Amino acid sequence: MTDEPQDCCFDDWVGCWSKRVRRKPTAAAVTVSLLEALEEAGVRDRTVLDIGCGIGDVASGTVQRGATRAFGVELSPRAVAEARRLAAERGVGERVTFTIGDGAKADLEPADVVVLNRVFCCYPDIDALVSRSLAATRHVYAFTAPPSSGILGALARIQVRGENAWYRIRDHKFHGFRVFVHDLDAIDARIRAAGFSPLRRERRRLAWRLCVYSR
After folding, report:
1. I want to staple 136 with a disulfide (CB 3.0 to 4.6 A). Which of 51, 85, 104, 108 is the partner?
2. Distance CA 207, CA 167 (A)
3. With bands split at pLDDT 50, 70 and 90, how would you rate the model's confidence at 8?
4. Which of 139-164 are b and which e, b meaning 16 or more Cβ less than 10 Å from the residue's Cβ?
5. Does the predicted model carry a pTM greater than 0.85?
6. What is the rounded CA–CA span in Å between residue 185 and residue 5?
């Protein structure tokens, strides 16, 4: 297994994500809750960096909610192409920029608001991703991730084991890709140590924790 996420799976999943956003505002239900939380925390007249942006529904959504500009970074070239199409379709293409890159390695331009939606679970070693994303954040830091403690954390680990068993069986397609449940309390401690205070730390749709911080 490599030490970084692979773009193979994300390319394959773009078609599914695209079908969903034709029927609904976002590719995942938890993203609606995240956008509402970001609007409450304050995206109007601010810049947004969406790391692991997928097809860009968060980036486009924040601009629709008043952000001045949004930038997306994503490993999958196909997802970036779809993100640009979606932004243009929603009338915000001139204020949203998408690039191909790894958020744990790329030079990230500082932004007022930094978002990682369903991204932590795709990284085996999360340290670099958290460090780089925090360094790029001026005011608001937000993420969604699987729960890591209690009964829901145990259930998340069982689900992850099942998914990873499937990825191993289909390794010719997934090329070592795995998903993870990272210690959210440890991540919370790192965020607080960087000078942020929690605005929200809550459960969403059983499978996700939604966390928003500000400074």
Report:
1. 108
2. 20
3. low
4. bbbbbbbbbbeeebbeebeeebeeee
5. yes
6. 23
Q: Is the C-alpha dihedral spanning 22, 84, 47, 125 positive or negative? A: positive
How is residue 13 written in tokens?
Answer: 């999943």
pLDDT in tens, 152-171: 999 999 999 999 999 899 88
Q: β-pairing, 208-214 with 137-145? A: antiparallel
Residue type, 102: D
Q: Give the tens place of pLDDT for each residue, 79-116.
A: 999 999 999 999 999 999 999 999 999 889 999 999 99
Written as one string, the DSSP assignment of the chain is --SS--SHHHHHHHHHHHHHHHHSSSSSHHHHHHHHHHHHH--TT-EEEEET-TTSHHHHHHHHTT-SEEEEEES-HHHHHHHHHHHHHTT-GGGEEEEE--TTTS-PPPEEEEEEES-GGG-S--HHHHHHHHHTEEEEEEEEE---SHHHHHHHHHHHHHHHHHHHHTHHHHTT-------HHHHHHHHHHTT-EEEEEEEETTTEEEEEEE-
Question: Residue 24 pLDDT more than 70?
Answer: yes
Nearest of 40, 39, 31, 47 to residue 113 by alpha carbon:
47
Tokens matching residue 64: 């629709």
